[in-house]
Amino acid sequence: MAKFMLEIVTPDRVFYKQETDMIIIRGLEGEMGILRDHEPFVTPLDIGQVRIKNDGQIKIAALSQGYVQVSEEKVVILSDTAEWPEEIDIERAEKAKERAAKRLEQKPEGLDILRAEIALKKAAIRIGTAKINQRH
Amino acid sequence: MGQNMNDIKRRIKSVTSTRQITKAMELVATAKLKRARTKLDASKPYFNTVLDSITEIISHTKGIKHPYIDCREAKKTLYIVITGDRGLAGGYNSNVCRLAENEIKEKSDVMIISIGSKGRDYFRRKGYSVSKSYIGVSETPSLEVTKEISEEIIRLYTNCEIDEVYLIYTEFRSTISYEPISLKLMPVNILPVTEENDEYPVIFRYEPSPESVLEYLIPKYLNSVIYGACIESSASESGARRIAMENATDNAEEMIDSLQLVYNRARQASITQEITEIVAGADALN
Hints:
The complex is a heterodimer of chains A (136) and B (286).
Chain A: E1 4-10, E2 13-20, E3 22-27, E4 30-34, E5 41-45, E6 48-54, E7 57-63, E8 66-70, E9 74-79, E10 82-83, H1 90-106, H2 113-135
Parallel strand pairs in A: 1-9
Antiparallel strand pairs in A: 1-2, 3-4, 3-6, 5-8, 6-7, 7-10, 8-9
Helix pairs in contact in A: 1-2
Chain B: H1 2-60, E1 76-82, H2 92-105, E2 109-115, H3 117-125, E3 130-134, H4 143-158, E4 164-174, E5 177-186, E6 205-206, H5 210-285
Parallel strand pairs in B: 1-2, 1-4, 2-3
Antiparallel strand pairs in B: 4-5
């Protein structure tokens, strides 16, 4: 399969930089797959996972908000954070999820609902991603 | 004479312990400088990518309109001043503060956010009001804090409470050269690539629209500029402190040497005097 250059960059490191067969990402309007020679385009990403397919193997990583830029020579994903399943601290994510859920339920005064929802979603994605590793 | 010698001895001891402290601080600053530089290198790719994307969008999309880019009449200006929390770093803190003050003097209506307690104290002393200050950040900048700051900027800017934002920080040129500089953050001032340099412009498709992508990108850009500036400042601070402490250590060593010389002379003088006294005494007996 024809490969393309994929870069995943976060503020604190270059998370991934390698030739890749295919990636599947979650854009704001649903999931999409990107292959070599994709039309150049840019779109923000939803909080979710990126699936990187390379030589028949699929790697999954959790992304928080970010955006993807497909250009002629490479595909760049920019995200606030990117983590492999084995890097995720499940306990911490579970706690964050509980905290966010509780806040949404109780609705204390001055609650930033959007923020709490984002926190909840992030935690859920991280837990989901971390559990992929355990299943294998 | 004995009294004098004890004094000198005591001084040598005190200078020696000062040298020990400055030496230790120098080593600590060297280690911190190294850490800050690694962090700086790690954050560069992200920053460059964000900047490239914004430049691309602005230069390839005609007639784009967004409040973050469009200039409006500057009535109120926000200054973000990055200094250290602690002194003993040579001219590091005062250089940043002086540049900031010169800039601020020219504006009629300003608002100051300080990162680092030195900047806050400086402007309070000069009678400016510092609306917010972040302490304990400048040495180990974190993305959470810079995000908070950039969100605050965006909020103030969209509410038209401020019309311009400047960032004043210390640029890290090399391990021995640092320059305080002032950078305009808002409205975002990015020069589009001119058509001549760009032979085959790639037409990007933006989903859902170029504006929405900018809406996402510009806060990210702000955040990474502020984060990068914080890291550069912290690298500069450690570098400046390292040099200051190196000089202090050298000076202490020089001082110890000259004190040692004075001490030896005094010792010799007192021995000579003692011998003269004994000889004189023996002579008197004969």
